[in-house]
Amino acid sequence: MAETPVTAWRRAVIWALLLLGAATVAGCASDAELDTFAPQGPIARELHSRGVLPVFWIAAVVFVGITIAMVWLIWKNRVRTYDGDDDWPAQTHGHVPLEVGWTVGFFVTMTAVAGIMLWSLPTVDATEDNTMTVSVDDRSVSWAPTVVVVGNQWWWEFRYYFSDQVDLADLRAHGDAKTLPPADIVTSGQMVIPTGEEVELILTSRDVIHSFWIPALNGKRDAVPNRFSPWKIEASDPGVYFGQCTEFCGLSHSRMRMQTVALTPADFQAWVDRTSADAAEPTAADALAGMEVFAGICTSCHVVEGLNDDVFESADQASGAAPNLTHFAERSTFAGGILDTYNADGSLNRPDLEAWLRDPGAVKANYTVPGEQYRGMPDLDLSEQQIDDLVAYLSGLGAKPAGWIIEATQVD
Amino acid sequence: MAITEHTPLEIGPGDTARYAQRPLGVFTRPQEGRGWRDWLSTVDHKRIGILYGASAMFFFLVGGVEALLIRLQLAAPEGSVLSADVYNQVYTMHGVTMVFLFIMPLAAAFANYFIPLQIGARDVAFPRLNALSFWIWLSGAIFLNTSWIVGGGGADCGWFCYSTNSGVAFSPSHGVDFYAIGLQILGIASLVSSVNLIVTCLNMRAPGMTLMRMPVMTWMLLITQFLLLFALPVITVALFLLMFDRLFDAQFFNPDAGADPLLWQHLFWIFGHPEVYIIILPAFGVVSEVIPTFSRKPLFGYEFMVFSGIAIGFMGWGVWAHHMFVSGIGPISVAAFSLSTMFIAVPTGVKVLNWLATMWGGKLKFTVAMKFAVATVAMFTIGGLSGVTHSVAPADTQQTDTYYIVAHFHYVIFGGGVLGLFAGMYFWWPKIWGHFLNERLGNWHFWVMLVGFNLTFGPMHILGLQGMSRRIDTYARGYGFEFWNMAATVGSLLIAVAVLIFIWNVVKSKRDAPHLPPPGPDPWDGRTLEWSIPSPVPTHNFDTVPQVHSRDDWWHTKYAEDDDGRVVRVATVEEAAQTGEATGVHLPSPSFWPLAVAVGLPLIGYGLIFNLWLALIGALLTIASLYSWALEPVDDPDAAHDHHEEDHQEAQEADNDGDEQ
Questions:
Q1: Same domain? A393 vs A374
Q2: What is the ipTM of this complex?
Q3: Residues in contact with B166: Cβ distance below 8 Å, sequence separation at least 6, in sequence order
Q4: Does the structure show a pLDDT above 80 at B15?
Q5: Closest of B515, B492, B599 to residue B135, by C-alpha
Q6: Rounded CA gap, B499 and B502, in Å?
Q7: Rounded CA gap, B580 and B117, in Å?
Q8: A331 and A377 in one domain?
Q9: Are residues A184 and A248 in the same domain?
Q10: Among the partner residues B170, B297, B462, nearest to A250 by beta-carbon distance
Q11: So what's the pLDDT on residue B2?
């Protein structure tokens, strides 16, 4: 039977819609490290189930209702042409009860949405008084898990204060993010947290506004210069959780990423033991040579505890800081969370590390005009020998992380 | 003042002697004519509307090319079409161009052209001020874009330009200087225009046209003007402070000097959120005219439509901090702004249902204008509902600054605003130009644009929920962003094709016009006063200012309802429409001074950035022009008061030519 053009057209539309649906499913099902619909901790899960999903359902119902009404109206009332002067429908000008009705209807709907908001607001704002015992420098301290998170162009710094010498509730007393008190552990790019503990974050910035976001563990909050904003995350299981700076922060905003590595409390303690210590002096000849290069060039911005922390004042950067590299090799990413330190098989990712040292601006756009404050790592004009030595030195700063961390860091 | 008299103002030959002294100034008073130079001195609201519209469409192409560059860069991971630096400039200028140089002036085009026609006036209240608005806007638009050439690139701080990233230390090129000064210039234009149009709506309505008989489009445009009037001073203050920070080392936004780093955000969004309604309300107005016309029914619930528009206008001031839910403003503020944001959805939802109720039981004829209007309602509904999903502040902490938001506001601004204004173009094109836009090409334009639009911005919902950040110049492989980004880029190319079809339609329709029957005054069986006068509209608009008896007065002139509620024709268009042949209508005289005032402003801008002496020259030009303008009589005593006396006018023009030599 020959199809009329109309049914052929309809079939085409139906096929197109089916294809679109299939493509949507295929597109969503792919492995997305930043997926907001895949919460991995109690805060994010509650935020998702209380805040996100209910309002999505309400919006979906309203959308389907209005769409059906519209399609039905179009299908039922459409005409090709007007049949002269008499072809007029009933001239209704309005219907006050009906209009009051849907005004009230929308009001009630939005009141329900308001209820959802008020119900889910404590999810992101209330804090727990949880503490855990951490031993630092052979001392056992009761630690309310808290990390001071500092945004910089274009990398994150994470500072851990285990002793109660520093009142974290009143960091303002110390000035701003550029004058923070010395911390027990200073790391960057990767924040390490214990599983099963709510970790309070104190967010601030040394230059422009950034935003800290680990979608699997919670929503985001801005890191604002001269402010200390509270936030929190919690991971149920050990894992590597990905994040991205989400407030536009200038030139290399897109290359400002971070990960949160959640470890079991025992592994976390082991990490604290390793990273609260100063860097060990290298023994190999090339690493020693690398340390010489580092001490001559890199220390104008970077700190390695045990090498230059006692003499370091401020980095030649708009933020006044560059990543602390004391335990560089402990982190499975570098350069602001964008490059893998190790290959999947656990070997050092030498090509990326060398490329970064050779010409950082080619990997991550920077601003290095002589006479003005640098933003981003400048091109240091290193020789290949210097690069090799630096790689030997850096790869010896700290222990290689566990194999599963390296594996989980690989995005492809 | 223009014409408020109900009968033409007569000035006898003897009276002109009182005005006979020449104005102080270098220009011979221009006469209304048809050459290109007359466009520079025109004060006719219709010509100014066309100037606004044509310039806006030009900048639509500029902003569109910027959009295509963005999409090409993001089509695949690790894109290398643009460097990070250039990408940041392009996405910033895309936003600034589309908001300030395309959709606002396009809405201004509709406001200028149709407010006087819809309220039965011969011009706006202050015709020369109207010309000033346009020329200042154009000079600001050109100034802003010259930063590509002389400023070391466009602004690179996003259209929102948050401090502290907008400071010299973090944005050392002159792009942000051009942004700060350019937007101030554009702001003057919008401010002047808003005062003008508010006075026009309030004072110049034809006799009998009470406020509650005003066409809904005029109502929405009036509300828009009030929003502009109150919103622009706020952003102007913010831009002024930014300018002082950057050019004169002030410390308004420097946290190291004790500034509140969120001050800029508050100032920007107190302007920036009403700005959303400034963009969308004119399109709501267009849709409220088009849907009734092609449903053959009056707008359902006129009062609800007007008052929900007013409600949106009021509530629009109390929601700004929903752009700042994650900035750290504290849970009480977050809850308060989250609630106000939710309840602004009520009047908006009422509008959508009232449009549907207008279509209910109607006879829907899907001309291209009607297709665009219905698509506007459908697409805006999607944008509105995605807005509701992130009005829930905690949920917004997952969604803000992701592509979900990009999808949301493009459904509102493109799906609502731009499609709505395209509906208006297809609807009023015959009124403006005296010929239709081709419906067959229009259908192609519509369908390609609708599919392209949804293919571009629909996938961005998914990308955002999958965690793709906004304002990133590239993304890494493996995060699941590849497929939908490619889809969005294909969609953006479809939109580009649709725009090319539209341009071709404009050209072809004009070319074909002589071979087609003219549309006549009332091609769509329209409802409002602009359809009672010839197409194209004569210079004086109305032969006699109409006496208005009801809402949709022109429809009631043509039709009545019998005792059974059936519609019967009482007059044909030929009987009822005006012929445009009136003579002796007194019209405001053209002037060059608005243009001269406007030319001075960008000179001040360049001067502030590069050399203060240049600013002095610009300021002198502007001030001298303002004085010359003030001393120039409103009406040229030497000009014809009757523009139909062609002989007289030509004699005057010959006179002018003589003077110029």
A1: yes
A2: 0.94
A3: B157, B176, B242, B246, B253, B264
A4: no
A5: B599
A6: 5
A7: 13
A8: yes
A9: yes
A10: B170
A11: 46
Subunit contact A116:B392, Cβ cutoff 8 A: yes
Q: What is the DSSP letter of B434?
A: S
3-state SS assignment for residue A317: strand
By mean pLDDT, which of A304-308, A358-362, B11-15, B545-549 is the weakest? Answer: B11-15
Instruction: Tell me, yes or no, whether A222 and A264 share the same domain.
Output: yes
How many whole angstroms separate alpha carbon B536 and alpha carbon B122? 15
Instruction: Please report residues of A whose CB lies closer than 8 A to that of B172.
Output: 367, 369, 372
% pLDDT > 70, chain B: 91
Looking at the predicted structure, is the pLDDT value of residue A156 above 50?
Answer: yes
Distance CA(B137)–CA(B232), nearest Å, equals 14
Q: Is the pLDDT of residue B25 over 60?
A: no
Whole-model pTM over 0.80 = yes
CB B134 within 8 A of CB B192: no
Q: Which residues contact A128 (CB under 8 A, 6 or more apart)?
A: A198
pLDDT tens digit string along B319-367?
Answer: 999 999 999 999 999 999 999 999 999 999 999 999 999 999 999 999 9
List the CATH number of the domain containing A402.
Answer: 2.60.40.420
CA pair distance A62, A56, nearest whole angstrom: 10
What ranges in A256-349 are assigned the alpha helix state H? 265-275, 285-296
The phi, psi pair for B574, rounded to 5°, reads -60, -40
Distance of CA B202 to the CA centre of its chain: 20
Could you give phi then psi for residue B130, rounded to 5 degrees? -65, -45
Structure tokens belonging to residue B348: 């908006």
Contacts B261 to A, Cβ<8 Å: 209, 224-227
For chain A, give the number of residues: 412
**What are the structure tokens assigned to B121, written together?**
């006036």
Contacts of A93 in chain B (CB under 8 A): 298, 300-302
Residues 6+ away with beta carbon under 8 Å from B515? none
Task: Give the number of domains in chain A.
Answer: 2
| Cα A154 to Cα A83, A323, A334, distances in angstroms | 67, 10, 12
Give the distance from residue B94's alpha carbon to the nearest chain A alpha carbon, in angstroms: 16
Quick one: three-class SS letters along A337-384? CCEECECCCCCECHHHHHHHHHCHHHHCCCECCCCCCEECCCCCCCCH
- Is A383 touching B (CB cutoff 8 A)? no
Q: Which of A69, A79, A246 sits opposite B402 (nearest CB)?
A: A246
B467/A90 touch (CB, cutoff 8 Å), yes or no? no
Q: Which domains does chain B have, with CATH numbers?
A: 32-576 (1.20.210.10)
- CA B123/CA B104 separation, integer angstroms: 21
Which 521-560 residues of chain B touch chain A by CB within 8 A?
525, 559
The parent domain of residue A103 ranges over 33-76+95-126
Same domain, A108 and A167: no
How many CB pairs below 8 Å do chains A and B form together?
Answer: 324
Token pair listed for A195: 């599983």
Q: What's the pLDDT at B100? A: 97
The one-character DSSP state at B469 is B
Task: Kindly report, residue by residue over A111-145, the tens digit of the pLDDT.
Answer: 999 999 999 999 888 899 999 999 998 899 999 99
Distance from CA of B502 to the nearest CA of A (A): 23
The helix-helix angle for B84-96 and B175-203 (nearest 10°) equals 10
Distance CA B498, CA B416 (A): 17
Whether residue A409 lies within 8 A of chain B, CB to CB, comes out as no
Q: Give A32's contacts in chain B (Cβ within 8 Å).
A: 466-467, 479-481
Q: Which residues of A touch B165 (CB under 8 A)?
A: 208-209, 248-250
Q: What residues of B are in contact with residue A373 (Cβ under 8 Å)?
A: 169
Burial class (CB in 10 A: 0-12, 13-18, 19+), B174: buried
For the cut 70, the answer to whether the pLDDT of residue B21 exceeds it is: no
